[in-house]
Write a structure and sequence with these properties.
The chain has 1 helix and 8 strands; from the N terminus they run H-E-E-E-E-E-E-E-E. By secondary structure, it is mostly beta strands.
Length: about 140
């Protein structure tokens, strides 16, 4: 039996299937994503696995111009606050990094995913959250 209510493996497998999973605290009601052992709000371990809306708002971003081995720059990395409260990180799709400006802040987004090829420093294929602008 795993101590984790939602493992990273389960989180990423659900993401590949189009579901954004997180944790809801039975003690304070706060949501946590991506998964951790305890609640981001109160630190309690009385959490349950829930499906999140996958909708949020861009709060901040940066343009990556020097990428790690295996990835191509430039690309945009953003933090979005989900409707349920937690912030998650992902790439913004369909926005030219050379034209990214402060107008991205506050844009509504939907969470999707992209599959990453195996890299020299990974144990195989990966998956990462991405954001699609919806307003």
């Amino acid at each position: 039996m795993s101590f984790y209510k939602l493992t990273h493996r389960d989180y990423f497998e659900a993401l590949k299937e189009g579901r954004l999973m997180g944790l809801k605290c039975r003690e304070c009601g706060a949501y946590t994503a991506p998964p951790k052992v305890c609640c981001d709000g109160c630190g309690g371990t009385g959490v349950e696995t829930v499906q999140l809306s996958g909708k949020g708002v861009i709060k901040t971003f940066t343009v990556i111009r020097v990428a790690p081995e295996g990835l191509e720059a430039p690309y945009i990395v953003a933090m979005a606050e989900l409707e349920e409260g937690p912030w998650i990180m992902g790439n913004i799709l369909d926005v030219d990094p050379d034209k990214a400006g402060m107008d991205l802040i506050g844009k509504k987004v939907a969470v999707d995913h992209k599959v990453l090829p195996p890299l020299n420093y990974t144990s195989g294929e990966g998956v990462a959250p991405v954001f699609k602008i919806i307003s």
